[in-house]
From TrEMBL:
Keywords: Electron transport, Flavoprotein, FMN, Phosphoprotein, Transport. One of its GO terms (biological process) is electron transport chain. InterPro entries: FMN-bd, Ion_transpt_RnfG/RsxG. This is FMN-binding protein. It holds the Pfam family FMN_bind. The keyword Thylakoid does not apply. Coiled coil: none annotated. Residues 88-166 form the FMN-binding domain. One of its GO terms (cellular component) is plasma membrane. One of its GO terms (molecular function) is FMN binding.
């Protein structure tokens, strides 16, 4: 009985120390991770519109928008650019989609990250999928990827949601 009590106490102390160390290092690295993500997003925005400056992208207030997939919205010239994270087969996809304010056509699409099945779900990161999105109506029929329908359908649903938000912003 005494041995079980000592082992339980030892495991409790080790758990408290490990939990405290994890919390400390999480707090220490969180700002660095956030800055790296913001830097990657700025680089992607400039990849979408190489003639722009970072200051040209104006944040749109999200307080009136209820969405679990829209992370940020930027306004740039005649476009709204949505930073979205959608659930897919496994971990989902984070992407930027630029929608023309006037006709709801997709101007640019760039997938930032995808945690789904390698080779299938990750096809949403590839050039052919990107090109198949651009120029099409954001609120219309968009192609999905055969064999990766869960991942690509989630992206398409996210784009449809962004299109409905564009209509509500105007």
């Amino acid at each position: 009985m005494k041995k079980i009590l000592h082992l339980t106490l030892f495991l409790a102390i080790v758990s408290v120390i490990a939990g405290g160390a994890l919390a400390y290092f999480n707090e220490l690295t969180e700002p660095v991770i956030a800055e790296n993500e913001a830097k990657q997003e700025r680089e992607t925005l400039l990849e979408m519109y190489p003639d722009a400056n970072v200051e040209d992208f104006k944040n749109v207030d999200l307080s009136s928008i209820e969405s679990k997939t829209i992370n940020k919205i930027y306004s740039y010239q005649d476009f709204y650019i949505f930073n979205m994270s959608v659930s897919g087969y496994s971990q989902g996809t984070t992407f930027l989609v630029s929608i023309d304010k006037n006709n709801l056509n997709i101007d640019k699409f760039i997938a930032i990250s995808n945690g789904d099945t390698s080779g299938l779900g990750t096809q949403v990161l590839d050039e052919p999928f990107r090109k198949s999105m651009e120029g099409n109506p954001a609120d219309g029929q968009l192609d999905t990827i055969s064999g990766a329908t869960i991942s690509s359908s989630a992206v398409v649903n996210g784009i449809h949601e962004a299109a409905s938000v564009v209509e509500s912003l105007e």
